[in-house]
Every structure is written in C-alpha cells, then in structure tokens.
C-alpha cells in the first residue's frame, strides 16, 4: 500500500474540502492507501513537519464546507521563504528542508492543490525528486490548462445573488450601484456574474475603460426612463490612460487599495460626471467563503479522484484539468506562467455587448 500526502496552498475557495475528500475516498476506500494531510500549505513542510492522518473519519461531513480543513498559507514559498535572522527577515531557499521533511513523513507522492504560485512550487519540487500531482485552484478562473477551476462557479453565484438584491434597492432609490468584485488580473467573475445578474456596465482588467463612455451609457439609461444602473467592476479594472498609479495597482492589487479600491474610484468619477447618487459595494471575501455549489462539489470530487489515479499511474509533474466534459491530465507547465484572461473580442464579451451591457469601451 502507498502513503500519499495532500496540501492546499494560496487563497482558499469553495471546493477545497471536496477535493481533499475525493482524494481520501479514492485512496483509502478504493485502494487501501494511507493519506496524510499537511497543514497550512507548504508551511507544514518547512516547519515541523506538521501533518495529520486523513482517514475516513477525518473527512466525514466536509463535502459542503467552504475553506480547507488543512489550512492554507499566505507566505509559503519554500524557494523564497521569510526567515528571521536576528532582527531582519530574509527570503531564503528552504526547499531542502521541504524535501527532508517529506522523506520524514514517509509519503510516496504529494497532491498539491493550488493556483499559479503553488503549482510553480510543486513543479520545481517535482524536478528536485519529490513526486507531485497538481490540482488547479483559483476563484478568479484565470489558470490555463483547464476550462474552469472549482470555486469560480460558487463565486459567480454569490455575486449574481448580490446583484439581484442590489437591483431592488438601486431601483427604489434611483441610484447607481458600483459593485467591486474579485479578479485581480482577469475579469471572469465580473463578466459572467454581470451577465447572469443583468448588470448595465461591466468593467474588467482586459478592457481599460473610458469613464466618459460609462457616464454616457448611464445617462442614456436614465434619460430613457431607467433611473438606476448597476456597474460591476473587477478589482483589477483600470481606466484608459489612467496613469501609472492605477495601471500599476491593477497589476499589483496594491495601489488600488490605497486609492480606496477601483469601486470607489469609479463611483467618484460617476458622481463627478452625472447628477446621480452613487453607492459602492465591495463584495470581497464573501465571494470566497461558504459552501460550494453543486457544480463545484462535483468538479472538486472529480479532480480529487483523478489526482489519485495519476499517482497510481506514476504521472508526476502532471495536473488534473477539465477540458470539454472530461477530466484529464496536462503538464503542470501548461497551466503556470501565463494567465487565462478574458478575450476582449471573444464570444462572451460580444454576447454581453449584444445584450446592451456597456463594457467600458
Ligand atoms: O487571486 C484570488 C483573489 O481572490 C483575488 O481575486 C484577490 O485579489 C486576492 O485573491 C485576495 O487575496 P487575499 O485573500 O490575500 O486578500
């Protein structure tokens, strides 16, 4: 029998527990293997090791639970790990410690569930002789190699419900509601929830927006009798020629916070060009918390089961992925490095525009 280990790295999202459960059930129940859960992403292998046995009792009841029972880490890159030396903190390569700790726990392979960062680390560790299978994860849906990631469908559902609720209050008060949603680099959440939730304007990082045209669109609606509008903006959206600060912040997700977020920025601009009341709603981590949708529970379960199959086949350095209707294996390399962004001229954007949604241009 084999012993395998699993960790969850990077930002959490609904479905992580369903992946863990899928791995444990396929390994323990179907194959009689042992599964060890590493705590707090790669931190649990840099320190400690901090591991716990994942038997069937440990995963009982976790399918509908958001987050990750294993915990995740905000710092954990073992190739550049913050190590305190005296009063200073230095980024240090501690990958040898990870390899050593992995040998200590006696596992034959590792399932690494994570986004671009976690998968890059997993790929490097695999090259150093630690057999890894990856499971792609990002709420933003911006990983390549897979058609969609788990958690994303749940997030789109949360935002859509919020948009439905905001419609009734916006309409009652004749207001413009600017709703800032997640999506640091990619506009998927804004675009799909905007379509599902009947937004009037959708602003995404892939299409720098022209604020004057946004104002014109809202004014046209108002003059046509719709005295309210719903604007959905990805947190990474930025104005056309918006100057370095905003462009940089869109890339780094830093300056925007200093500016009070792109939602606040857009709201201030709209108030400046229209005589309408504007309110801002920043949905934030509500989009990442809570129970996964049925779609995400199924996708996560399939990913977990497939990851165990890949280990059984010795297909290391691979990642599970959804392509079309099938869960398959791709090289981790295919997924990392470049992001899966919205095509500004693709069918989805053209659909939004055909529906009369203003996309910032
Ligand atoms: O990349 C996923 C994401 O949710 C982004 O949309 C968002 O900018 C970021 O993570 C938030 O990160 P944190 O949880 O560290 O605040």
Automatic annotation (TrEMBL):
- State where ATP binds: 11, 75-76, 115-118
Q: One GO molecular-function annotation for this sequence?
A: identical protein binding
Q: Which PROSITE patterns match?
A: PHOSPHOFRUCTOKINASE
For this UniProt record, the keywords arranged alphabetically read as follows: ATP-binding, Cytoplasm, Glycolysis, Kinase, Magnesium, Metal-binding, Nucleotide-binding, Transferase
Copy the pathway line from the protein's UniProt record. Carbohydrate degradation; glycolysis; D-glyceraldehyde 3-phosphate and glycerone phosphate from D-glucose: step 3/4
**Top EC category:** transferase
Residues binding Mg(2+) are 116
Named cofactor requirement(s) = Mg(2+)
E.C. no = 2.7.1.11
Which InterPro entries is this protein grouped with? ATP_PFK, ATP_PFK_prok-type, Phosphofructokinase_CS, Phosphofructokinase_dom, Phosphofructokinase_III, PKF_sf
Q: Where is the Phosphofructokinase domain?
A: 4-311
- What biological processes does GO assign it? canonical glycolysis; fructose 1,6-bisphosphate metabolic process; fructose 6-phosphate metabolic process
Q: Is Metal-binding among this UniProt entry's keywords?
A: yes
Carries keyword rRNA-binding?
no
Q: Which residues bind substrate?
A: 138-140, 175, 182-184, 235, 279, 285-288
For the site Important for substrate specificity, which positions are given? 117
The record, for PANTHER family, names: ATP-DEPENDENT 6-PHOSPHOFRUCTOKINASE 3, PHOSPHOFRUCTOKINASE
Subunit structure, interactors included: Homodimer or homotetramer.
- Family to which the UniProt record says this protein belongs: Belongs to the phosphofructokinase type A (PFKA) family. Mixed-substrate PFK group III subfamily.
Protein known as = ATP-dependent 6-phosphofructokinase
